[in-house]
Design a protein that fits this description.
The chain is an alpha/beta fold. 34% of the residues lie in helices and 24% in strands. It is built from twelve helices and 15 strands.
Length: 381
């Protein structure tokens, strides 16, 4: 096999963009598509000249695919992935991995049992500044991290939320900004700074007419005694995504794809103990960080090509599916803390969160205002 035969399940929004992308990747060929919406399915099927299926099981049983990219609403990610792994088919899932950590656990376990490749579409990991930031952390140049911060202030209109009956509902989406817009930022944040051991969070709906949160914030505690703060929203203009990691030997700031790194001469801890001058402080200097060059492919395509090369040649995954659990721990942990008013230890209590999401689903109200639109994000690269 010199190319991976790929099917895309869910082609009304991001999935359509993924279909368009695949023609740019030498190791991939699009061979089938699936969607429950007949007009959308027909249009995408005809555009790409591939068979279309209205049930994912039919696509999986067609013999046309070696792997699938799942781009459906969130609740369907886990059951489709499980069905694929049972059939020996590789899986690349859009974010979030699932709605609950317990469902994500099942996906990880099924992938391991099947021996198939399991990836998650965390394309921000492929950005040059993210790659360079990760290298700084892995080389230990920050020293022990003692403070973290994530601020992701994005914007979505009411029209965005009204574009689908499933959007911004507990029964259809399983959450708001945390589970839809924030997973990429949460992944980068934990990929670089690690997962906290305890969160104290709040969630609220400040601006939009939706039943889920458009704003979330949390105080974070880490096993080594470090502390952090996290804020995400879809209410802010202009948008920003800012990650700060402060360590004993340096500070890393990643803002909207731009990286700044300051290196301390020595150790802050050692200087504090050993210095004898009253007004002295450790010296730090800005470091000019070399970023890896961008190739012809960008972001989503980089992740997809890497996924295909992992199947074909055993290339290490940039975004392994099991690492999608870290963002899920924060998503579920902050919602659980916000709804109970209590701090939550990570890993999240699976039974407690399953109980909470069942209650929220049961209380979910049907939308009275829907203006159906299935449009790929124009920022898709």
């Amino acid at each position: 096999m010199d190319r991976v035969r790929m099917g895309v399940i869910g082609v009304g929004g991001m999935g359509s963009g993924h279909c368009n992308m695949m023609g740019k990747i030498p190791e991939v060929v699009l061979t089938a598509v699936c969607d429950v919406d007949a007009p959308t399915l027909q249009a995408v099927s005809e555009r790409h000249g591939v068979p279309g299926f209205d049930r994912h099981e039919a696509l999986l049983d067609s013999g046309l695919v070696d792997a699938v990219l799942i781009a459906t609403p969130h609740y369907f990610h886990a059951p489709i992935a499980l069905d694929a792994f049972r059939r020996g088919i590789h899986v690349l899932s859009e974010k979030p991995l699932a709605v609950t950590v317990s469902a994500a656990d099942q996906m990880v376990a099924a992938a391991r049992e099947s021996g198939r490749v399991f990836g998650v579409m965390f394309q921000m990991r492929a950005e040059p500044a993210s790659v360079a930031a990760r290298r700084i952390v892995e080389e230990g140049r920050l020293g022990e991290i003692y403070r973290t911060q994530l601020v992701m202030g994005w914007y979505r209109s009411q029209a965005y939320y009204d574009s689908g009956g499933w959007r911004a509902t507990w029964s259809g989406e399983g959450g708001g900004v945390l589970i839809n817009q924030a997973p990429h930022a949460l992944d980068l944040f934990t990929w670089l700074g690690g997962l906290p051991c305890r969160v104290t969070g709040q969630v609220r709906t400040r601006l939009h007419d939706i039943e889920v949160e458009d704003e979330a914030f949390a105080f974070l505690e880490y096993a080594n005694g470090a502390h952090g703060y996290l804020y995400v929203s879809t209410t802010e203009v202009p948008g920003v995504q800012r990650i700060e990691l402060c360590g004993d030997r340096g500070k890393l700031v990643l803002v909207d794809g731009q990286l700044a790194f300051h290196e301390v001469e020595g150790s802050i801890r050692a200087f504090t103990v050993e210095n004898t001058e009253m007004w002295a402080s450790p010296k730090a200097h800005a470091v000019d960080v070399a970023l890896p060059e961008r190739g012809e492919l960008r972001d989503h395509a980089v992740i997809t090509r890497n996924f295909a090369r992992a199947i074909l040649y055993g290339e290490p995954l940039i975004a392994p599916g099991e690492e999608g659990l870290r963002a899920m721990e924060l998503i579920n942990g902050i919602i659980l803390s916000g709804k109970t008013g209590e701090p939550v230890s990570l890993p999240v209590d699976r039974v407690a969160y399953d109980r909470l999401i069942a209650q929220l689903q049961a209380s979910s109200r049907g939308k009275t205002r829907v203006r159906e639109q299935r449009v790929t994000d124009p920022h898709y690269v």
